[in-house]
Specification:
By secondary structure, the protein is α/β, with parallel strands linked by helices. The strands form nine sheets. It has a seven-stranded mixed beta barrel with strand order 21-24-25-26-29-28-27. Helix 8 (213-224) links the parallel strand 7 (197-204) and strand 8 (232-237).
Length: 748
């Protein structure tokens, strides 16, 4: 890489760079075939720091310009990556989703290894054959593993999970995408993203007491709501950023997904350098230090942020209270001083029944260290623990180091179950024992997402999100109305005692220990990739059919979804995750969690073929068998949450032609486009109310489908009347090509 860095030295003429690349056997195409003029004046932020003295023209001449051509930059990056890594893009696969949290790490991993063997073997063999790094089950959750091993300041990365921006804690532009987008990147193709807006979050002061980095994003979620960051980058700036650890910054960036942000980013600082060195990346820290000024906001941006950001939000860390968010949505933000009243007024189940800490969001050494300091107070102050505790370490490195330093023991002494280094309860992989699977109850987690039924499948589990240390305090108390900042507990001697402020180390003084990392480097072996045609877990994909060139006419309404409809509602996780490699089987869960606007029930829609109410997938299958396409109508932020590709693939597979919503979440809208679906939005959101249960719906204007040109929806009501209105879309020419071809994959 040093050689590559020398080649790309920004002080050298572009012509020399090209010559060196050719000498290194890097194929440099004819620039005239790929370059487009680049006008920096179109950018909102233009500073001298981005300037170059030279610019290449198609005939090879070099002349002054404000900046190198964007097309050339893209091609240079692509070719350099190919040269440096011998594959188009360095990629890894992580097995963190299919490990059920039940008895504990040892038996749970053993069970997962056996029950998911064909899936793990498939992923291992594909990874080895195509030059992809493979992390075994139990190695850790992708975001924590990436932070420990791969993330670096100034880098760019995509990942097939909405919480990929976790790497922003190290100053990396990390973006969550759908599977089809990831394939584009992995194969070296161009990846497309709508130009985001910029939200600047100005942090002042420093955290103290019970306040933690988690509380920064919990407060921000309340300000922005679950869609306030859609198509925006959240950039943190100000003196307060330097007071946060790298892993604390990662927590904040991780949960930016809950406000819909494209990504979140912190400026490079000494805390990042310390973390890089602690995780064995001294050389990266050294390189970052040399260009530190290019890895943080310019002075003029900090001095006058409103001139550079589309929105500026002020948060004083010194005044920040701990927050508890929920239930059922991560943006229901409440400071701890007001939470008890909220519980009582809203009639939430006051008893706190389970505390869960860890996950990709809050399982750093600092997180577990501060939580363990609370756990140790149980013995010190002769307290009892009112609720069970579950701990999900984020990686084997974190688990092994926490065990060595006594933190795991501290948790186990208060009755905690240490689960596998995996996603577990956060994604519905929690085999919870309860006396009634639908009983109203409350749990508190340090996870990032708390949609209904997500953790344990119970629609009445009120899941709240807080920092690990606050989760521990509430677990000890067993009472949602307990405020550790001011309330006392009665110990075993009948004395009133108050929990001390949590304390913990940012990093281990003795360094990290790896434990059993579980990494397999790609061998490049040309192994045969086998899929049993009778398998219930894996199924080879068949291409989706191309558009037939006609308008979509007289489609039955499959479902008019009411209220929140996340990817969990569209393609439920939990036990369904075992079918992620089998599109036909997993499609049985399609939209089973969505609320039918006409009856207020889930998974119960009117089937015009039978004139009865049936499951959503059941009705869709019957329509498909008759060659009938159907349509889904939804409200705001449709597809919020996980990047789950199946939420787009399942409707496509079951012949749903159109999704009409008031608005879409970013990742899901792109996923729909990639799969050849038609995703459109209401111009007048009141038109949502015009759609009736027995309507036949026509979408016209597809022959003239073009960027910026509206389509027309006609509702044919059962009584013979009609309603007609226009709908809008965000498709560009390339995306329209995907629609016409039947999917992006078909268009390649």
């Amino acid at each position: 890489m040093d050689e590559i860095t020398t080649i790309l030295d920004s002080t050298r003429p572009v012509s020399d760079i090209i010559s060196d690349l050719k000498e290194k056997s890097v194929d440099v195409p004819e620039w005239s075939k790929s370059l487009k003029d680049y006008d920096p004046s179109r950018h909102k932020i233009v500073t001298d720091k981005f300037s170059r003295k030279d610019k290449i023209k198609s005939d090879g001449r070099v002349e002054p310009a404000s900046r190198i051509h964007l097309g050339l930059e893209k091609l240079l990056v692509k070719r350099i990556t190919e040269f440096a890594f011998a594959i188009p893009v360095s990629s890894t696969v992580h097995c963190d989703h299919l490990i059920q949290a039940y008895k504990g790490a040892g038996p749970d991993i053993a069970t997962a290894t056996e029950t998911n063997r064909e899936v793990y073997d498939f992923l291992r063999d594909v990874s080895s054959r195509f030059g992809i790094g493979f992390w075994k089950p139990g190695a850790g959750i992708i975001h924590q593993v990436v932070l420990e091993n791969y993330a670096f300041p100034g880098g760019m990365m995509v990942g097939t999970d909405s919480h990929t921006p976790n790497a922003g804690g190290l100053g990396m532009v990390a973006i969550g995408v759908g599977g089809a987008d990831a394939v584009d990147v992995m194969t070296g193709m161009e990846w497309e993203l709508k130009m985001p807006k910029l939200i600047g979050v100005h942090l002042t002061g420093s955290l103290n007491g019970w306040a933690s980095p988690k509380d920064v994003i919990l407060k921000l979620a309340g300000i922005l709501t679950v869609k306030g960051g859609t198509n925006a980058i959240i950039e943190y700036f100000g003196e307060g950023t330097a007071s946060l650890s790298a892993t604390g910054k990662a927590t904040i960036c991780n949960m930016g997904a809950e406000v819909g942000a494209t990504t979140s980013l912190f400026p490079y600082d000494d805390r990042m350098a310390v973390y890089l060195k602690a995780t064995g990346r001294e050389s990266v820290a050294e390189m970052a230090g040399k260009v530190a000024n290019d890895l943080r906001a310019d002075a003029e941006v900090v001095a006058n942020p409103s001139a550079f950001y589309d929105r500026v939000i002020e948060i004083n860390l010194s005044e920040l209270e701990p927050y508890i968010n929920g239930p059922f949505t991560p943006d229901a933000a409440t400071p701890i001083s007001e939470f008890a009243e909220k519980v009582l007024v809203n009639g939430y189940p006051r008893k706190m029944e389970v505390g869960l800490i860890g996950s990709c969001t809050n399982s750093s050494y600092q997180d577990l260290s501060r939580a363990a300091s609370i756990a140790r107070q149980v013995a010190e102050k002769h307290l009892a623990v009112a609720a069970p505790l579950i701990v999900n370490p984020g990686s084997e490195q974190i688990r092994a180091t926490a065990e060595r330093d006594g933190m795991i023991d501290a948790f186990q002494k208060i009755g905690a179950t240490i689960m596998a280094n995996a996603c577990g309860p956060c994604i519905g992989q929690w085999k919870r024992h309860t006396d009634d699977p639908v009983r109203k109850n409350s749990i508190v987690t340090s996870f990032n997402r708390n949609f209904a039924k997500r953790a344990d499948g119970n629609p009445n589990t009120h899941a709240f999100v807080a920092s690990p240390e606050l989760v521990l305090a509430l677990t000890i108390a067993g009472d949602l109305c307990f405020n550790p900042l001011k309330d006392t507990l009665i110990n075993q001697e009948g004395e009133k005692v108050k929990l001390s402020v949590p304390e913990g180390d940012e990093l281990p003084s003795a360094g990290f220990t790896q434990g059993n990392p579980g990494y397999l480097a790609p061998a490049g072996a040309q192994v045969e990739i086998k899929v049993n045609p009778e398998s219930q877990r894996l199924q080879l994909l068949a291409p989706f059919p191309a558009w037939d060139g006609k308008d979509f006419t007289d489609m039955p309404l499959l479902i008019k979804a009411q209220g929140k409809c996340t990817t969990d509602h569209i393609s439920m996780a939990g036990p369904w995750l075992r079918f992620r490699g089998h599109l036909e089987n997993i499609s049985d869960n399609m939209l089973m969690g969505a609320v039918n606007a006409f009856n207020g029930e889930t998974n119960k829609v009117w089937n015009r073929l039978t004139n009865t109410y049936e499951s959503v997938s059941g009705a869709a299958k019957q329509y498909k068998a008759q060659g009938i396409g159907s349509m889904v109508v939804a409200e705001e932020n449709y597809g919020e949450g996980s990047s789950r590709e199946h939420a787009a693939m399942e409707p496509r597979f079951l012949n749903v032609k159109v999704i009409l919503a008031k608005s879409f979440a970013r990742i899901h809208e792109t996923n729909l486009k990639k799969q050849g679906m038609l995703a459109v939005t209401f111009i007048d959101k009141a038109d949502y109310d015009k759609i009736q249960e027995h309507d036949l719906i026509t979408v016209s204007g597809l022959a003239d489908f073009a960027p910026g040109r509206n389509l027309t929806v006609t509702l044919h009501h059962e009584d013979g009347t009609q309603d007609r209105f226009e709908v809008q879309h965000t498709y560009n020419e390339q995306q329209i090509g995907w629609f016409r071809a039947g999917s992006a994959l078909n268009a390649r």
